[in-house]
Amino acid sequence: MAFYSYRLLPLGPLHPGDRRAGVVARCHRHLPGHLFSYALTATVAAARGLAGDDFAGHLRLLDEIRARFRFGPAFVCAEGRRLDDAAVEARCLGATERVTLRPGARSAVAGALFEVEVLRLPDGHHLAGGVWADAPELDGEPLHHWLGRLRLGGERRLGYGRVRCPERLDETDRYPGVGPVVGEAVVMAPGEILPGAALDGVENAPLRPWLGRRHDRDRGSGRAFSQAVLVRLHGQVPAGGGRYRPSAEEPGLGCWEPLPGPA
Question: CA-to-CA distance for 83 and 117, rounded, in angstroms?
C-alpha cells in the first residue's frame, strides 16, 4: 500500500460525535479514522445500488473497504500546522440547541432539550488526513471524488457533514499534522504526542472507551454502534520511539496500532 494525504473543506457544520455529557452531545476535536471507512462504505453502497436492508451486502462492502484502504484520523489545520484540541475549541467549536419531538403530536417531549456540539471551520482552516491505499481510485473513479461525496459524522438530517475535496490525493512521505511516513507506518520519536486515538503503544494519557457508528440492519447507515474498545487519546510516544498505523479491524477501526520493530 502507498500513503496518500488529502485536504477537505467542510461545506457546513460537522458533528463527529463523541459522547453525551448531561444535556450536551459532545463532539471530537478531530475526525476519527473510522468515520471515513464507514462513510465511504455508505457512499459506495448507494452508488452501487445496494439496498438499505441488505445487511450482509453492507458488511461485505465494509470488508472490501477495510482491505483496500486504511484511513487514519483527519485534523483541523491552519497556517501550515495542526491545531491542538484547545485551539480547535477556541476557533471552531460551537453548539446548536435541539429538542426531541413527539411523533404525530407536533410537540416537544418535556425535558428533552439538549445541545449538540459542532465544528465550524472559519476561513483559512481545513481538514487534513491520510490513507494507505492499494490505489487512489475506486470503481473507476479517483478517490478524491469519493471523498468529496462523504457525509461525515452525525446530524446528517440537518445537512451536517458535507465536505469538498478540492484536489487529487498526493502520494507523500508525511502524514499531515502527525509525522513522517515510512512504508505502512508513521514513525514517531520518543516523547512526541501521537494525535488521535491509539489502541496501544503510548503512555501518559488515560484509558477511555471508544466506539463508532456503522450500518444497522433495520435503520440504515450510521444507526448502530460498533463494539467499544479502550484507547488512549493523544498519548505520548514512549522511550525508543514507535511505528504506528491505523487499525483495519473492528473494534478499533481507524485507531493507531503499534507495529513491532525499531522506529
Answer: 18
Cell numbers describing residue 7:
485536504
**Per-residue pLDDT tens over the stretch 57-92:** 999 999 999 999 999 999 999 999 999 999 999 999
Spatial neighbors of 131 by CB under 8 A, at least 6 apart, are 3, 4, 6, 36, 69, 70, 71, 72, 143, 169
Query: For the whole model, what pTM was predicted?
Result: 0.90
Say how far apart CA 45 and CA 57 lie, in whole Å: 9
Contact 163, 8 (CB under 8 A): yes
Cβ count within 10 A of residue 121: 21
> Structural domains in the chain?
2-259 (3.30.70)
* Residue pLDDT, tens place only, 37-53: 999 999 999 999 998 88
Beta bridge partners of 49: none
